[in-house]
């Protein structure tokens, strides 16, 4: 058996131990057809690292579009949770994957989609983590304990973000991240799987931030 969807495989360090990871990706912000994969995205869409570079080129972009088409089709026929569970099980048992990132780009674009992931992770109790800007738009009460969720600043619902729970911000520099008291998740975002409350990521897109974007980020981070 092969996976139903396209995943990226890699190795990361978590608490200084190398672990095998897999990431699932949708088109960032919106698909080629205009479907919004990140409905709550706000200012972040202007500097999103996944809307540039390798994410937008050739095979990668086509794979992310296929992933989106597949999950939407399988949501319609109620087979998505089972297919996701198949993938998680296969990657864990045959590729020795220990940790899964849901959405290297994209987000939980509707409740049924979030519910399918939660059901799959209950069927296959591997460890997974995800960032989201949908914290105020979906019901998170049924999220299983093996899925770590990090709220992400930069969306339309920042005012409703619970800062006592894991959350992340993007900073222009490491100096600003450290001054704000945020742990470094730039080089290894598996920090998000550990429940750290304040996670900071320094912008690392192919295109450098413009002066206007840096000002916007600083205003956002001062709020």
Structure description:
The radius of gyration is 17 Å and the shape is globular. The chain has one domain (7-222). It has helices at residues 58-76, 80-94, 111-123, 174-180, 211-222; strands spanning 7-14, 17-24, 99-102, 127-132, 147-152, 167-171, 183-184, 198-202. It is built from five helices and eight strands, in the order ββααβαβββαββα. It has an eight-stranded mixed sheet with strand order 1-2-3-4-5-6-8-7. β3, α3 (111-123) and β4 form a beta-alpha-beta unit. The chain has 223 residues and is of the alpha/beta class.
Task: Report the radius of gyration as a whole number of Å.
Answer: 17 Å
What would the average pLDDT be, to the nearest integer?
92
Strand order of the largest sheet: 1-2-3-4-5-6-8-7
What ranges have pLDDT less than 50 throughout 5 or more consecutive residues?
none
- Along the chain, the helix and strand elements come as EEHHEHEEEHEEH
Counted beta strands: 8
Name the shape in a single word: globular
**Number of domains as seen in the coordinates:** 1
